[in-house]
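Protein entry
_____________
===
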Amino acid sequence: MKSKLLTVDTLNPNIKNVEYAVRGPIVQLASKLEKELEQGVKKPFENVVKANIGDCHAVGQKPITFIRQVIAACMYPDLIEQGIFPKDINERAKQILNGTKMSLGCYSESQGIEFVRKSVASYIEKRDGYPADMNTIFLTNGASTSVKLILQCFISPKDVTGVMIPIPQYPLYSATISEFGMQQIGYYLNEAENWKLDLAELKRSIDEAKQHCKPKVLCVINPGNPTGQVLPYNNIREIIEFCMEENLFLLADEVYQDNTYGSEQFHSFKKVLRDMGPKGDGFEMASFHSVSKGYMGECGLRGGYVEVIGLADDVLLELKKLQSAQLCSNTVGQIVVDCITNPPKPGDESYDLYKKEKADVLDSLKTRGKMVYEILNSIEGVSCNEVMGAMYAFPRIVLPKKAIEKAESIGEKPDFFYCKSLLLEAGLCVVPGSGFGQQEGTFHFRMTILPPVEQIKSFLERFKAFHLKFVETYS
């Protein structure tokens, strides 16, 4: 028999370097435990609570009615004539169908449906108070695809491209950097000051990196994932100025821009850049948004966009060519982008319900974020910064020396060992901090604030009992 051409040894080594902790071995173990519980296998817990990923609908959040009615009417146009939906839903669906060759089953323009890109441009203008051009907006299968589209442009045969990412970070970035054969340049967020981004740390990070790669890109996640911070206006300006000084392309991951719960409001990087006047002319950056987060949580429909700013005209043409090789992003996701950037207006029949459902989701997330923050900080050996935005808490845990030694003796990272024990003993699924990056000698885990209030309360009670027992066992 002929030997295999593709083996682990012959596989692209960049692929083998890819890691994605959010769906890593602990999550796979959680799924296995769920199946065993369904089969009647006895466990120390009645159910598994998955707080590992920002999948809103998977933990009970109901879809926004407006979005689903628009999709339903577009997917099955016969419903429009049956009088099932409000008048404005039917009118929106007709407009969408007129702009998509009367079927969402058709390919769209590679860059995205034109009227959707117009909606996005109008949304950005209203948000920031500055013009946006639909020709510099690309509709993609979620923000993840947008990020990869832009980073792909920096792959270079001449030198090793360095990409600066926050630590802790969302593993999409480290995974993509590995896949593309680039160099990860980690800069640490300041946990002691609510995960603030310090310029001195940026400078330290880039100066060290220049010894072994060519830094070209700086990524910022705001509001933060997994850390839940919201960057203040002046900090954003400082970051832009740093990029100007170091000649860096800025990636602004702003997919949680609707999710802010504290006193600090969201400011887009583009708005701050434009506020700088002529000083910002020619600055190169990309800003990302997604329908997976916010109040809509439509993770499975895969819709998102990227707005590119300051690109040379010939580079923009090459980017459009690159996107055309994908033919187009899925049209249902594009329609959801249209729904969130051009929602019902006062006076529309759908407006009151839409407004209520949106407010209910965001108010509930704010309540859950506060609850998680307060209860975690009441547990000895656990500390957590305020959940100012996004959908996550990233608490720090103090592990006994014997627990660290036990983990090392079986070849596991201490926080992985802790999180695996949390799952096996309490049925709680979270992601170890090492999957996102953390300061040497510190241990964390990421949990979502998405489960319903009562489930969050139960989660925190079970977590507290486990943590106190774990510390006692290894003290």
Notes: Residues 351-376 form the longest helix (26 residues). The two ends are 57 Å apart (CA to CA). Residues 306 and 410 are 44 Å apart (CA to CA). The longest strand covers residues 214-221.
